Amino acid sequence: MTAATVTPDRWTVWADAQIPRLAERAQAAEALRSLPPETLEDAARAGFFAMLAPRSLSGEGASFAEFLDVVRRLAQGCTSSAWTLSFLALHVWMLCKFEPELQRELFANGAMPLAPAPLAPTGRAVKVVGGFRVSGRWEWATGVNHADWVIVNCMEVDAGPRFCVLPIGEVRVDDVWRTSGMVATGSNTVVAEDVFVPAHRTVEAMRLKFAPSPGEAMHPGGTVGYPMSATLALVAATPALGAAEGALEGFTTRMKAKIAAYTGGMKQSDSPATHLRLGEALATVRAARLVWEDAVRRLEREGPRGHEVSVDTLAAIRLAAADIVRLANVAINTLSAAAGASSGFLDVPLQRQLRDVQVIRGHVVFDWDRAAMVGGKIALGLEPAMSDLL
Q1: What average pLDDT does this structure show over 358-362?
Q2: To the nearest whole number, what is the mean pLDDT of the chain?
Q3: What whole-number distance in Å separates Cα of residue 338 and Cα of residue 349?
Q4: Given a cut of 80, is residue 258 above it in pLDDT?
Q5: What is the C-alpha separation between 327 and 305, in angstroms, rounded?
Q6: 331-348 burial, b for 16+ CB within 10 Å, e for fewer?
Q7: pTM score above 0.90
Q8: Is the pLDDT score of 280 beyond 90?
Q9: CATH at 244
Q10: Alpha-carbon span 124 to 253, nearest angstrom
Q11: Which of 114, 112, 116 is nearest to 59 (CA)?
């Protein structure tokens, strides 16, 4: 079969159909500071949340290449929505790394548990008979408005960090997410006050990151063993790329029809300055796409090695993720500078794409100086530190 006759797979068709729907709902999603019910229903009906779950749990068993391409496309419609949906699906995959007993509990009858995961270890876990008493406050709980469970990271007394899975009904959600961008992610704060968590709903963070996880043996041959931090970073970077692609398409369409002010009726598309800025943005988005494609291929090639993935690969994907976000931000800034004052209206997607990617850029994983220093350090053969987030 030639490339010209390849039929798009069902996920590509679904994602492309969602782009205009997400774009149409984007302004309402900002007003809600959450995903509209229709967006969540569309994803659930399509089986999107099961995309990364292994077939042994009635999931789709999709590759990360397939999943990331869907996320990239969704972000062309709404960056916040793509980010939130992708993390809810990724955390289903993350739960597949936990103890078999927890998986049997959460995935009973084909359920796909929705569980935000604020990953900074800002809680405390005290070991007691049968489990742990957990208290703490965790920020950036993306998608918590739609959660069944929540995955939090605690410092276990006299030990190290430990992930704990709590029913959403046993925590408090503080409504604090009032931001300039990524508004619809609803990334509110989770609070737990002396909640008992059975031992089977917990796992040492180091086992998930740097050793075979408890759940891997249940799902041989799939993606469950892929390295957690590198995979998470690449998933998180993908909506920024989709946003830049959406901004590029929207800007091009808008400039073809826009009349430049104070020019006597000249079309904006006839302006050499517009040509220059569009050309710069085209090159920058293409560069971001190439970095993304290379990182996806590397993840798929090296991911099956699990905890034996080299530090060089972990650092390369970490650097690529930060570079994707950096380039996406540059491209959208370039387009915004050339779009004119009318692009600032709230019904124009470009202003939202600008704000969204600026907020994504602030994520600790995408701090360019920090990511570049980690990449350089590893290239010189130096040992990584825990703070390098590999």
Answers
A1: 97
A2: 94
A3: 15
A4: no
A5: 29
A6: bbbbbbebbeeebeeeee
A7: yes
A8: yes
A9: 1.20.140.10
A10: 52
A11: 112
pLDDT in tens, 198-211: 999 999 999 998 88
For residue 385, how many other CB atoms are within 10 A of its CB? 10
Cβ atoms of 197 and 134 closer than 8 Å = yes
The stretch 44-60 carries a mean pLDDT of 96
pLDDT of residue 267: 77
Range of the domain at 16: 8-110
299 lies in some domain: yes
Q: Which of 214, 207, 247 lies closest to 26 in space, CA to CA?
A: 247
- Evaluate if residue 214 carries a pLDDT over 60: yes
* 203 DSSP β-pair partners: 163
- Write the single-letter amino acid at 218: M
3-state secondary structure of 26: helix
Q: Is residue 368 part of a domain?
A: yes
Q: What is the DSSP letter of 145?
A: G
The answer to whether the beta carbons of residues 296 and 320 sit under 8 Å apart is: no
Contact, 334 vs 280, CB < 8 A? Answer: yes
